[in-house]
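Entry for the shared binder. Reason: the reviewer on the internal report wants the predicted structure included alongside the sequence.
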Amino acid sequence: MTTRTLKKTLSVLSMLVLISFTSCSSKENKSTANNLADSAILVTIESPSNYMDQGLNLSGQIEAIQTVNLSTRVMGYITYLKVKVGDHVAKGQLLVSISNDDILAKRAQTDAIISETESAMKTAKKDADRYTALYQQQSATSKEVDNVNLQYSSAKARYEAAKQMRNEVNAQLVYTNLTAPFSGIVTQKMAEAGNLANPGMPLLTIEQAGSYQVSASVPENTIKQIQQGGIANMNIKALNKSFNGHIVQINQSSQFTGGQYMIKLSIPETEQKGLYAGMYTNVTIPLKQNAVDSNNNTVTVPISAIEYKNQLTGIYTVSSNQTALLRWVRTGKTFGNRVEILSGLDKSESFISKAEGKLFNGATVKTK
């Protein structure tokens, strides 16, 4: 084989190898692209909205519908107090006992006085009946009859007074044994067994279990726009929970609340589970169209689209390479189930509102 023929043969072989390599590379690129397309996370894209709904935004707090502070009207040492904060108590359950030896002694005295006055009353009654019979037989004067009747009336009055003294003692005795007025949970314990209880001093606080409402204050310039029975949206950030309730009570006076009118809002029974008294709630009450000024520059996004990492908040957007990009933002007020974006996202930029998979920076995404 000549040198020229050998060169031609090598050239042809090189061209065949190059074509084969190019074909394989093209197939690999197509395969990689197909794999990326198959693994892309399906997302829903939205644009920020200008919040146009007219509503009053308030800060509320969850509270028990029924709360009571247990106290006594007598002074004495606490002999029994075994419940602690967090304990469930039943209606009528004995919670606190206070030493009552002195009251029991007074009751024994009144019982003795009752026995004495009852005997004197019965004797006076017999004398009055006897003199009345003698007077009818003309064997006694009217003055004698009047005297014995007066003695009977006096004895009867002393007997009735003694019985009222015993009622008073029994009433005091009731306040030495404090029972739960309703079934609930002990939320505060201000005394221990052995402490000296004073009249009016709170010993325990009980809240009705599983029955909550929201309390909020309304400024005086918008109270006229609120009506009892109106609908309100409530959002609890701590639980990431939103629901609708109704205005069940409006306080007509702001004398002791600094110009703020207190309102109460109901919580649906289906939403009561998992709530705790004291949790803060964002309340949005729809108002009439001319009740408040709208702000067309307010940019809001769904709360569900916000990502919380450490002390930062962010929202996912789509990059030019069709990948997820976490954008850090600063949030503001909450409007129902939407939150205001103060910075980090312009009203002309779109964001990912929903994803059918776990998003992360650089994840390949595709829109619906």
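Summary line for the report: The helical segments are 3-39, 101-136, 142-174.
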